[in-house]
Amino acid sequence: MIVLLKSTQVVQVLAPSPERCQPACRYFDQCGGCSLQYWSHEGQLTSKEQIVLDQLRRFASVAPQQMASPLLSPPYGYRYRCRFALRWRKGQLQFGLRQKASNAICDIDDCPVLAEPLQEIPRLLKSLLPTLTNREAISHAESFLADNGRAVLLRHLRPLCEDDRQRLLDFALAHKLFLYLQGSPESIELLSPDTNGLYYRLGDLKLYFRPQDFTQVNWLINQKMVGQALDWLALKPTDRVLDLFCGLGNFSLPMARKCHHVTGVEGSQSSVDQACHNATANGLNNVSFYCTNLAGDFARQPWAQECYDIALLDPPRAGADFMIAQLAGSLPPRLLYISCNPATLARDTQALLAQGYKLHRLGVIDMFPQTAHVESMALFIK
User: Fold this and answer.
1) Is the CB of residue 358 less than 8 Å from the CB of residue 380?
2) Around 229, how many Cα atoms within 13 Å sit in the side-chain half-sphere?
3) What are phi and psi of 361, to 5 degrees?
4) Distance between CA atoms of 195 and 197, rounded to whole angstroms?
5) Is 31 tagged catalytic?
6) Residues 168-205 pLDDT 10s
7) What is the side-by-side strand order in the sheet with 66-67?
8) For residues 340 and 317, is the Cβ–Cβ distance under 8 A?
9) Rounded to whole angstroms, how far apart are CA atoms 192 and 151?
10) Per residue in 226-238, pLDDT tens?
């Protein structure tokens, strides 16, 4: 593909690559959300795989012993949650997603990466919000798709009057939505209807979550990712597993079905509480959860004194270098690393190699098609 460039903007495509395609989104030229829509899905995956391999080669001087096929997502319609930006200008609503390299809002009516049941949410909210008396109190909106229904969360800067609350309740009932109101970071109220909680399924497990909890946006890939983790680890009934950065128990609970005991560790107390709730709700009593700052000194924590057969790490973008250094010499012989940042994966791989591990298997995870985000799974064996 030959292009003329002006700064970072494409001015003209002189000879299109066979991998070049027409973006599916009519807002592609303005919206900053999905920057790779001009590239074929296959081309994106090949590039992401190469990015991970290049980072490992350059910074850890290693290649995996085995390369697994990517975990494939549908290229569109995969996103199960989305945060929308909104702004009121002279009483007029701007509603949508951030523009490229800007805080300005790209006003949208639809988004092709959203799961089909969420496609109408932007239009519904753009129709509803201007009818509220205290409409300019609404600052953000989020939508969620759970296995038991659709949900919307509205953040508001000031209390809403009773008429507005009733209008929102009528809207939620008419469109069969769970509707949450967030008046402060610590306060989320379920307005309608009554529910025991949103949940998503992993096999026969139900994992309950709240709007403020972290969950993967691509639940089809999440199911495949958990399944691949179980397959690669080949858990035995006698295994004791350490799950670090465990969140709500996304990996912990499926692993607990296969092994003797799982110890989950997470930095957020609210996530630990929700993970404990999920274990109880699914009748699992061979899993324990601890709240610990994994970027701090945890050497004296009781869970850090135990011996494990397997460790699973699912760290944030910053990676797990400090944690790996603290556990040097006590990490188990099999370690599965879920990465959302090739650079920190390469750095942490270097630390694991120094502890005697080999990079046994690597595979890319297609969590965010049409974007530059790169996720992968790596199995290390000592």
Assistant:
1) yes
2) 30
3) -150, 145
4) 5
5) no
6) 999 999 999 999 999 998 889 999 877 788 999 999 99
7) 66-67, 358-365, 375-381, 334-339, 310-313, 240-244, 261-266, 287-291
8) yes
9) 10
10) 999 999 999 999 9
Question: Residue 22 and residue 125: Cα distance in Å, rounded?
Answer: 29
Q: What is the DSSP code (8-state) at residue 65? A: S
Catalytic residue among 31, 34, 82, 340: 340
CA 127 to chain centre: 29
Measured in residues, the chain has a length of 382
Distance CA 153, CA 176 (A): 14
Distance CA 296, CA 272 (A): 17
Distance CA 358, CA 341 (A): 20
CB atoms near residue 380 (< 10 Å): 25
Closest CA to 208 of 263, 282, 121, 290: 282
Give start and end residues of each alpha helix (H) in 234-327. Answer: 252-256, 269-281, 321-326
Provide the token pair at 201.
Answer: 């399924």
Strand ranges (E), the chain: 2-6, 9-15, 66-67, 81-89, 92-98, 105-107, 138-146, 149-156, 177-184, 187-192, 198-202, 205-209, 240-244, 261-266, 287-291, 310-313, 334-339, 358-365, 375-381
